[in-house]
Amino acid sequence: MPERKINTPGLFDQYTFEQKQRLYEALTELYSENKRSLFDRLVQHRTRHITVVLEDIYQSHNASAVLRSCDCFGVQDVHVVENRNLFNPAGDVAVGSSKWVDYYKHRDIKEAYNHLHSKGYRIIATLPHENDTMIGDLDLSSPVALVFGTELTGLTQEAIEGADGYVKIPMYGFTESFNISVCAALSLFSTTEHLRHTPGLNWQLSEEEQLTLKLYWSLQVIRDGENVFRNIEKQIVQ
After folding, report:
1. In a domain, 27, yes or no
2. Within 13 Å, how many C-alpha atoms sit on residue 190's CB side?
């Protein structure tokens, strides 16, 4: 989906739940029943309990691979910090995943951390330090933002100092670190499996969040989706 703005209303925020339902029903008439069933199934696995922060990722294939992993593991939101490097996913690696996840750009790490803290997230930096918590032991009782640094130098000192905690992935070879996209994929596999198997943990999107997300997804599969939506809106929302 297009880049989302953290401080501006979403396309569907102005509508009531009932209006969103009517809009969604109208949009589903324009694509296949199989696609609708796919949306209904996949949205059940989407989560914002875990989110990803990328600081200054400059290699397009790594940016794309992280988006792809987020989509595959059901993580809906990605936050991108562009201190020096522009976030530029490569389409051949992303394989369309940017159509299904939301990503937000921030001017610097402080802005990203302030925004996530305001939403109730704990900021967890991924580092290979000796005494850090293993990724499999991370406490997921409250929402977590996993922070990954640039390919060569890792996280900036500001990103490290501003974090609420630190995790590492166990390694048993001569190489001392994983590629950024591999690190993200392993971290997301571990954390999303953990949260899905933790009884009583409220990790899924709310009913209204799911409906809103399916509206956004609908625009991705309808040609000229937003203009089509505007025409339907005029007929349905009085």
Report:
1. no
2. 18
Neighbour tally for 71: CB within 10 Å: 21
Residue 50 contacts residue 144 (beta carbons within 8 Å): yes
Alpha carbons 165 and 122: distance in angstroms, whole number:
8
> Which pLDDT value is given to residue 94?
42
- Give the per-residue SS3 of 153-181: CECCHHHHHCCCEEEECCCCCCCCCCCHH
Residues 124 and 95: beta-carbon distance below 8 Å: no
Structure confidence at residue 178 (pLDDT): 81
Question: Does any domain span residue 54?
Answer: yes
- Asked if the structure places residue 58 within a domain, the reply is yes
The pLDDT averaged over each successive group of 10 residues in the chain (238 residues) is 68 94 96 97 98 85 89 95 65 62 91 97 87 90 94 85 93 79 95 95 97 96 93 86
CA angle 149, 154, 157 (to 5 degrees): 95
For residue 79, what are the domain limits? 47-203
Number of domains in the chain: 1
Give the pLDDT score at 10. 85
> Is residue 21 helix, strand or coil?
helix
pLDDT at position 103: 86
Q: For residue 185, give the CATH number of its domain.
A: 3.40.1280.10
Radius of gyration for the alpha carbons in the chain, expressed in angstroms and rounded: 19
CA distance 109 to 158: 7
User: The tokens of 59 are what?
Assistant: 């290699």
pTM: 0.91
